[in-house]
Amino acid sequence: MALTGLDIYKLLPKTNCGECGVPTCLAFAMKLAQKQTSLDKCPHVTDQAKEALEGAAAPPIKLITVGAGDTKVEAGNETVLFRHEETFYHPTALAVTADASLPEDQLIARVKQINALVFERVGQKIGVGLVALKGGGDAARFAAAAKTVAANSDFGLVLINDNAAAMEAAVKEVAARKPLIHAATDANAADMARIAKENSCPLAIRADTLEALAALSQKVQGLGVTDLVLDSGARDPAKVLADQTLIRRAALRKKFRPFGFPTIVFTASGSPEEEVMQATEYVAKYAGILVMDAVEPWQLIAILTARQNIFTDPQKPIQLDAGLYQVGEPNAGSPVLTTTNFSLTYFTVEGDVEASRVPSWILVVDTEGTSVLTAWASEKFTADTIAAAIKKAGVEEKVSHRKIIIPGGVAVLSGKLQDASGWQVLVGPRESSGIPTYLKSTWQG
Ligand code: SF4
């Protein structure tokens, strides 16, 4: 829970000297609570107060980075239990397994299959971000496999092997990629912590119970490693869900510092469909990193779509810029359709226009990311806003006719839009799925 202005004020010197740039300590405290200033602006704050304030400002779940450069992934830094309370910030990082015991050519083929698991949906790139190399064979084999994976993928790496010698050999090969080391257990904690510390890598810790996990977290932090990822050891879906919920609640509601880190979870073996269901459950609650065997595009598209929905800020719908978009290679005689800038609406319309094979223009009106009927009801998609959008996008210079097709659901706008724009208004289908038939039969007919 964030400190209020009054909580902060109680810790300040209360001399109102003004050296921080505001006239009173109370005003400074209020600014600090709103994150409009920083504590170092007050030269008189005591070390004790500094410690208390900095501790309170630390995120309840630490942000952990796996990988380096443009392809690094981040997990953690979440602040709420439920998405509707605010938003979830860091989408669950998806890792797909590759087996170190595979012959090199098969390992490379597997890695290339994983690399291809990147898709585009509603204008956003979504995909897998990590390759999880599972241990197999001796240290030399595991290290060689890590090197092969790194040479064939830009994704971040998760190295999964409880054998400290094998882990050390593999990390040595790929240390610059800052892999996640999985896992330190009570038995190997000292060695794994040393490897993580020497190579500045994040470290996953695993125990069989939550009590043991909390103790291991404190032990490893005591060894100087503070970039941790928590594995409760559960693989059964019901137990995973219970553990994930308890860990998240303990971190956020109780400020239980041993659990103030993102988690890593694993899907259990089962049918491909079961794996998708497990993965989707773990994305929703509350995996920071999810490791799975799933490698089929249909599996990943389902999981990634769920992730995209869950990690979209509920107060900021996914939207695209207003303006004139083209589908195919439209010309001066091509139809002009209009819709709103809610991405799901636009990309549905775009897909249906594409399916018609009639090159077209789509005029996107800024409705603050709301769908057609919502925008109409809130007066964001009106005769005036559409007429203004026609002018602003320069549609008159692109087409020689003066006809615009509006969604059938807002047919009521046609008279006013005709008056406001001077364009002939054609009422399109109520559902986007009717666009191909409409364009082929009504527009071209
Ligand atoms: Fe108060 Fe510190 Fe600001 Fe002085 S500098 S007014 S003591 S907060």
> What fold name stands as the CATH topology of the largest domain?
TIM Barrel
> By helix and strand content, what is the structural category?
alpha/beta
Summed up, the helix count is 17
Associated small molecules: iron/sulfur cluster
Number of strands: 17
**Quick one: CATH class of the largest domain?**
Alpha Beta
Mean pLDDT: 94
Structural topology:
Blueprint: H1 5-11, H2 25-33, H3 47-57, E1 64-66, E2 73-75, E3 93-99, H4 104-115, E4 118-121, E5 124-127, E6 130-134, H5 139-152, E7 156-160, H6 164-174, E8 180-184, H7 189-199, E9 203-206, H8 210-222, E10 228-231, H9 237-253, E11 264-266, H10 272-284, E12 289-292, H11 297-310, E13 323-327, E14 336-340, H12 343-356, E15 360-365, H13 372-377, H14 383-392, H15 395-398, E16 403-406, H16 414-421, E17 424-427, H17 435-443
Parallel strand pairs: 3-6, 3-12, 6-7, 7-8, 8-9, 9-10, 11-12, 14-15, 16-17
Antiparallel strand pairs: 1-2, 4-5, 13-15
The protein binds iron/sulfur cluster.
Iron/sulfur cluster (SF4) is lined by residues 12-13, 15-20, 24-25, 28, 42, 44.
